Amino acid sequence: GGRAAKPVKPTRKVTFADVAGQDEAKREVSELVEFLRDPDRFSKVGATVPHGVLLMGPPGTGKTLLARALAGEADVPFFSTSGSEFIEVFVGVGAGRVRKMFEEARKQSPSIIFIDELDSIGRTRGTGLGGGHDEREQTLNQILAELDGFSPREAVVVLAATNRPDVLDPALLRPGRFDRHVTLELPDKGARRAILDVHVKDLPLRHDVDLDQVAAGTPGFSGADLKNLLNEAAITAARRSAADITPDDLDQARDKVMMGTVRTLAIQP
Ligand code: ATP
Hints:
This protein is an alpha/beta fold. The chain is 45% helix and 10% strand. The protein is built from ten helices and five strands, in the order ααβαβαβααββαααα. It has helices at 23-37, 39-44, 63-74, 93-107, 119-122, 135-149, 189-199, 211-216, 223-239, 247-266, and strands spanning 52-56, 78-82, 111-116, 156-162, 180-183. It has a five-stranded parallel sheet with strand order 2-3-4-1-5, with helices on both faces. Helix 1 (23-37) packs parallel to helix 3, helix 4 (93-107) runs parallel beside helix 6 (135-149) and helix 7 packs across helix 9 (223-239). It binds adenosine-5'-triphosphate. Adenosine-5'-triphosphate binds next to helix 3, helix 7 and helix 9. The site of adenosine-5'-triphosphate (ATP) has 19 residues, from helix 3, helix 7 and helix 9.
């Protein structure tokens, strides 16, 4: 259906200020803001700007957030889909959805297309039982065809996210396709503190909460984990009918999120 062709209108504009840490990734992506704001300035002098950008990094490090922030900064429509949405569709449906989404994005250009979980459709072709003709491959082929079909003047930037760049079909990475790569890392202590600062803004913390200490005690946590931790702590405080979040709530929440993380890691292939 036309589902994938609708631009997602976030209720609040996301900007780079919402993305804590990730300075290198933000710097690389911010080069595209100027292009999206005024594509003619670039095409006039014959400058070619990349159409395909691959965002790589562990789950929860802010790939989706960064893509949305780019759309917010450039103030352009944001078309979003996920590779996993194409897994169970009938033959031809996925390719049709891809075609429609690109068509709509071109109509509304300058614009951004975001494809989350690219690896779920973008795995190396010819390895499945479909003999090279299953719906996943057709969807992937359609994405490749769309990327190849851009003229240098078209101001549509396609961002795709993956945490498994190693399994991607090499065809996706060829020049003119996803040839620009941006890596997001798990946050270090300073970045964890910055992420906590972003997400505590509306939370009532008791005066003795030390966020540096929370940051120091959460090595290996992603941005998503830290957001989760704060929410868990708020839930714990609410259960006590307390007015604010205490260091103990945060400790309990950390242990909960850590156990969740361990469980998730254990079931990954
Ligand atoms: P996945 O690979 O699981 O899709 P992702 O890398 O796309 O993950 P997001 O979905 O962007 O990660 O992150 C989930 C949420 O975690 C974000 O909406 C945001 O609230 C929080 N978050 C992640 N990274 C950051 C960050 N660097 N700064 C602030 N918040 C962050």
